[in-house]
Amino acid sequence: MKKIWIIPVIVVVAAGLMLFGWYRNGYDRAVSMDEEVLSAWAQVENQLQRRNDLIPSLVNTVRGFADQEMGVFTEVARLRSQWAEAGTVESKIDTANELSGALSRLLLVSESYPELKSNENFLALQAQLEGTENRIAVERMRYNRSVRDLNRFQRTFFGRFFAAQAGVEEPAAYFEADKSAMEVPEVVF
Fold first, then answer.
1. Under a CB-based contact definition with an 8 Å cutoff, are residues 30 and 168 in contact?
2. 3-state secondary structure at position 88
């Protein structure tokens, strides 16, 4: 007769362990997804920093050939400083997009100077910049994939609960293309 109470205790303990396992799994998933977003963003920043490190050499090389293009140089320098001072992911994304446009304009300057286009330093810097832009695109894609997974999880019924428990309150920001990328460029032959 005394052993009858053991069965309800075992059932309660088993249910408690299952509930704890469910909670722990959901919490750990939210933390892992948040860390994945942070890690992916760090990789984007690494590549953006690589690009920012190449910019002074590129500007100096182009400046030697095209001093009258001072407006482009000033804008590139301003945006480079602005990116370094940006405090949030969103502001860094906005500044990085603006910087991409300014760099495109800087590279267009080279079209007006045939001797610049044949300069070995410029060609090497241009190749490095193109490679870096490709790396940025890949890291942006990985970052956006991580953001998608986290935001999707946060939008599920229990995912919202677990994300809040793990301290992940806000949906992560996507690294979207600059609005000017939607404009169709004018092609003149």
1. yes
2. coil
The residue behind tokens 């193109």 is: 130
Residue 99 belongs to what domain range?
A: 2-173
Q: Rounded distance, CA 76 to CA 59, Å? A: 8
**68 membership: H or E segment, kind and range:** none
CATH number of the domain residue 66 falls in:
1.20.1440.20
Q: Is the pTM of this model over 0.90?
A: no
Distance CA 139, CA 41 (A): 8
How many independent structural domains does the chain possess? 1
Residue 11: both structure tokens together: 């059932």
Q: Which ranges of the chain would DSSP assign to H, the alpha helix?
A: 6-65, 70-85, 89-109, 114-117, 120-154, 157-165
Tens digit of each residue's pLDDT (9 = 90 or more) over 81-117? 888 888 888 888 888 888 888 888 777 777 777 777 6
Supply 110's token pair: 């080279």
Question: How many CB atoms lie under 10 A from the CB of residue 52?
Answer: 19
In this structure, what token pair is assigned to residue 131? 């490679």
Amino acid at 15: A
Residues 6+ apart with CB under 8 A from 73: 59, 62, 63, 106
SS3 116: helix
Start-to-end CA span in the chain (Å) = 97
